[in-house]
Structure to design on (696 residues):
């Protein structure tokens, strides 16, 4: 036996001992949490962002909540409601998770809200924005840490009208989310005295050229284009808007998707000067935002993006909600899992990177301030600058629990 | 009036982009009877390799010159070493070739996803437009100069392909190879080499379209499948294997998409498909296609 062989067998022995002692620890109480998100499909990058944030939040809690060791079980909902329901049932029935969350797609989110309600297992949407999730489909087993389309867009619409913008053209993809964003923006903008003079909805993922629609917008002579595009469509739209020389004559306004940081490289400078609303920006100087940025950078070597912050709030709400429910129940996981959601909804997350976060008790939906930011060029490349804060809007009515 | 004029320019621009894709597909189909669904993959390879070259050199023009060479070489190898041997072994039914190349398309998409997204963490990319073409010109309304460049490239390629196929000896050999393969071979021409060269050129043009589109649209994992659909519509409209038909077919599809979006947005999603359905009912061989050969 050579020396290296001896050393390696020694190491193997140590490894086995460590594993044995590890299993002794695992005999402590364990709580299983499902991370069910869209790892494959168009939201793959967002899913990674959310997972990274979850792992950071778990690490910061030493892998435990209220004495329970947290075991995360990851499943892929494939941006497909059927797959999501199947995986949720697997998490609930064979893995026995106490709670699950993370979900991005609104379609999947609504389907999962149904499963959560039927199986009486808490579900916390991490990114889904459909109004119905905390409206028509609300449930004592469902909470949301992202935001609703109406609350975000109505707040933004009201903001621009109050800034003196009288006329706007809305442009977005012709599918459920695009229509929800349009309705939300119109609600807020027109209630505050503005007028949407033209609504241009383009075929979702089938549009290759925005030229005709941009020219049509130009014809209206409106002051701004308010827009909701994401991913490849956002890249093409922002680039073509700039190429038609409309940045000054008819500037773009929108929410975080249109100017998402992951798209900046592909926009090749067309994003500079863009103003949009967001629920998190690295330009926030609060101690909580700074602490989050430092911790994220220490773990991953890069600054977080808005979707990381969304994932982080999602994980923190789930972990701290679990901890509170366990503590309230004398150190044990409550039998009635609705108590986990009610504990979560009573949390006041004053140290959230997105600013103080609380929940609406009537539909378990998040409440937070929103931020208006501008993309400016600097010596270290483009970055966001905070130009204003604005109050959160209202969720659409319709929730009966 | 200017609104209409600018929409015509937009339509022309989209037509030319689709034409660059469709010309390769239609010539390959006409000459070799292969429905090459992997054409979308060569478009993607052109765009992604164009991005890599652009990142390395910082020059759009070098990228435009070099990037199409990779799909060109890969196209040659595919036809010469994979598709032709299969045809020789009798696996030449349209469905066989369509399935094989369709599978190849998804293999390439998966491979690109693995390299660029899983490994490098890149989701959306773009090639910067070159100086001089990155702005807009004022002709009544601001119009992006890069779009005029796309139109120019489309016309230049159309002219070149037409001249080569109709007015040169190479073109004569290619056309003869289609009509009577054995006779051309008997005259000492390596038909397989000619076929592979034509296949390669078609793939190279798809790659060129990828680089050109990479600056105007965005480079992402869905681009290949997205462009393939209007391209197939063009091939059907124009008639399989017809260069002239391909040109007019691309014009019709590009204009239909643009003008429907400008004037009747509600129809934008399916105007092209209505056109396709009407064509298949009334003139299935396409505008310029030959009537089916009788045996």
């Amino acid at each position: 036996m050579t020396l290296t062989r001896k050393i390696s067998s020694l190491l193997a022995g140590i490894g086995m001992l460590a594993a044995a002692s590890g299993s002794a620890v695992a005999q402590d109480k364990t709580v299983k949490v499902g991370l069910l998100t869209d790892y494959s499909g168009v939201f793959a990058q967002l899913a990674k962002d959310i997972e990274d944030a979850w792992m950071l939040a778990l690490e910061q809690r030493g892998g435990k909540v209220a004495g329970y060791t947290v075991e995360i079980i990851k499943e892929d909902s494939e941006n497909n409601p059927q797959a999501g329901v199947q995986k949720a049932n697997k998490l609930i029935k064979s893995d026995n998770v106490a709670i699950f969350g993370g979900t991005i797609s609104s379609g999947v989110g609504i389907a999962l809200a149904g499963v959560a309600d039927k199986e009486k297992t808490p579900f916390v949407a991490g990114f889904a924005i459909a109004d119905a999730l905390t409206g028509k489909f609300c449930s004592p087993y469902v909470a949301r840490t992202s935001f609703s389309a109406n609350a975000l867009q109505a707040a933004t619409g009201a903001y621009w009208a109050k800034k003196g913008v009288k006329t706007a053209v809305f442009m977005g993809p012709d599918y459920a989310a695009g229509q929800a964003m349009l309705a939300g923006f119109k609600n807020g903008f027109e209630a505050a005295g503005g007028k949407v003079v033209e609504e241009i909805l383009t075929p979702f993922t089938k549009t290759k050229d925005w030229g005709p629609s941009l020219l049509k917008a130009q014809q209206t002579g409106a002051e701004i284009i308010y827009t909701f595009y994401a991913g490849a469509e956002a890249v093409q739209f922002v680039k073509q808007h700039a190429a038609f020389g409309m940045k000054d004559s008819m500037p773009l306004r929108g929410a975080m998707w249109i100017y998402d940081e992951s798209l900046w490289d592909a926009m090749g400078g067309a994003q500079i000067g863009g103003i949009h609303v967001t629920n998190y920006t690295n330009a926030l100087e609060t101690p909580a935002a700074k602490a989050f940025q430092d911790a994220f950078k220490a773990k991953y070597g890069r600054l977080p993006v808005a979707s990381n912050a969304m994932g982080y709030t999602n994980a923190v709400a789930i972990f701290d909600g679990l901890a509170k429910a366990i503590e309230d129940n004398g150190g044990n996981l409550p039998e009635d899992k609705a108590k986990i959601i009610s504990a979560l909804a009573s949390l006041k997350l004053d140290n959230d990177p997105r600013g103080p976060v609380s929940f609406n008790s009537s539909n378990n939906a998040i409440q937070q301030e929103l931020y208006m930011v501008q993309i400016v060029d600097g010596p270290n490349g483009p970055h966001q600058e905070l130009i204003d804060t604005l109050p959160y809007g209202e969720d659409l009515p319709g929730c009966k629990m | 009036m200017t609104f209409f004029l600018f929409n015509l320019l937009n339509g022309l621009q989209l037509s030319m982009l689709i034409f660059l894709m469709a010309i390769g597909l239609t010539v390959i189909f006409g000459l070799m009877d292969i429905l090459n669904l992997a054409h979308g993959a060569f478009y993607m390879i052109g765009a992604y390799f164009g991005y890599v070259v652009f990142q390395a050199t910082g020059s759009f023009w070098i990228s435009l010159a070099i990037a199409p060479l990779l799909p060109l070489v890969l196209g040659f190898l595919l036809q010469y070493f994979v598709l032709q041997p299969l045809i020789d072994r009798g696996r030449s039914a349209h469905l066989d070739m369509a399935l094989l190349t369709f599978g190849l398309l998804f293999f390439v998409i998966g491979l690109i996803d693995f390299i660029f997204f899983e490994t490098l963490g890149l989701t959306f990319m773009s090639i910067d437009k070159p100086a001089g073409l990155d702005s807009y010109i004022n002709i009544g309304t601001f119009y992006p100069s890069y779009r005029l460049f796309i139109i120019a490239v489309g016309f230049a390629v159309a002219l070149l392909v037409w001249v080569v196929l109709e007015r040169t000896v190479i073109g004569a050999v290619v056309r003869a190879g289609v009509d009577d393969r054995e006779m051309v071979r008997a005259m000492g021409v390596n038909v397989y080499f000619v076929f592979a060269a034509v296949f390669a050129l078609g793939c190279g043009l798809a790659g060129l379209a990828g680089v050109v589109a990479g600056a105007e649209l965005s480079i992402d994992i869905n681009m290949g499948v997205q462009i393939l659909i209007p391209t197939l519509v063009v091939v059907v409209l124009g008639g399989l294997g017809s260069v002239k038909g391909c040109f007019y077919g691309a014009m019709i599809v590009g204009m239909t998409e643009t003008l429907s979006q400008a004037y009747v947005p509600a129809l934008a999603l399916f105007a092209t498909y209505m056109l396709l359905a009407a064509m298949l009912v009334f003139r299935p061989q396409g505008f310029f296609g030959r009537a089916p050969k009788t045996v």
Q: What stands out?
A: Chain A has two domains: 29-147+286-368, 150-278+371-390. Residues 17-26 of chain A have pLDDT under 50 and may be disordered. The domain at 29-147+286-368 of chain A is CATH 3.40.50.2300 (Rossmann fold). The CA atoms of residues 350 and 356 of chain A lie 4 Å apart.
